[in-house]
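Exercise: predict the fold of this chain.
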Amino acid sequence: MKVITMESSAFTALTEQIAEIAAHVRAVSGGRKEEAPDRLLTTREAAHLLNVSCRTLQRMRSEQRIAYVVLRGKCRYRQSEIDRLLEDSTVTGDAATPEQMKRNHTLRTGGKPKGRRT
């Protein structure tokens, strides 16, 4: 094993150059990772990712809260659909607008505010 020593100013200059190169690479590539193909998950895999039972997943399917694919009589769920459902169900901690606050309330309570009939 070799140990290389250098002055701290040289090390700082080197790390700054590496950061500039990394920023350039991100700018050229558009800042996005190459997308993997959308995986199809079984009911058990999707339920595990959502931390719900298979029966709850069936209920979500019948309520049309999650999209699915039927292949040879078996239900499959796209990974992107699982990701979308998780994103749509995420309560944000920094709700700045009234719409975000209303959305958070709806997610927390599971529906309309109490006492309102519309």
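Check your answer against the key: The chain has a mean pLDDT of 83.
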